[in-house]
Amino acid sequence: MPALTLSQLILIALLLAAAATDLASRRIPNRLLAAGLACAAILHLCSGNPLALLSTGLAGFATGLLLFLPLYCLRGMAAGDVKLMATVGAFTGPALALDIALAAFCAGGLMALLIILASGRLRDTGANLMALLRPLFLRIGGMPAVAEPMPAPSVGNMPYAVAIAGGTFFTLAQPWL
């Protein structure tokens, strides 16, 4: 594994702090994210490339934000998780932010499955999933969608900062090389 850059070390410290607070309180402090964005901006400004702040920082921020924002809009993720992924993108740039997001989605899916299995609520999860997907299936079949009762309460709450940190560490380590 190649030596880590200053930017990567700061990002790792940010992710460890975010994951720890998310595990403890299911929140990611805005102050932590603002400090991370400020660090990313300073690092890009000091990189010697005057356009790095725009081409890497801002483009990566937008990539991270746009990849996770739909999940927030569907109530599948908290706002802090979206802001954390946008901050990760500000450090890494758009291409690496996409790789990290995909790895984080995989880590999050695995975490969700483990939480569901550990809680013994697989049946409730299936019922919630069917209630959410039934209108889509009806539309695909050409039938009018009818108002559905609200699904049962969520079967789990997940500290997604852990998945984002895991996806970032996995991607930065590049185990496939």
What can you see in these coordinates?
It is a single chain. This protein has 177 residues and is an all-alpha fold. 74% of the residues lie in helices and 0% in strands. The chain has seven helices and no strands. Helix 2 (30-45) runs antiparallel to helix 3 (52-73), helix 2 (30-45) packs parallel to helix 4 (79-92) and helix 5 (94-119) packs across helix 7. It is elongated, with a radius of gyration of 18 Å. The model has no long low-confidence stretch (mean pLDDT 88).
Could you tell me the mean pLDDT?
88
Specify the structural class.
mainly alpha
Which ranges are low-confidence, i.e. pLDDT below 50, for 5 or more consecutive residues? none
> Residue share in helices?
over 70%
| Radius of gyration, in angstroms, nearest whole number | 18 Å
Shape: elongated
- For the record, give the distance between the C-alpha atoms at the N and C termini, rounded to a whole number: 9 Å
User: How many E-type strands?
Assistant: 0
* H-E order: HHHHHHH
Beta-strand content estimate: under 5%
* Major β-sheet profile: none
Tally of helical runs: 7
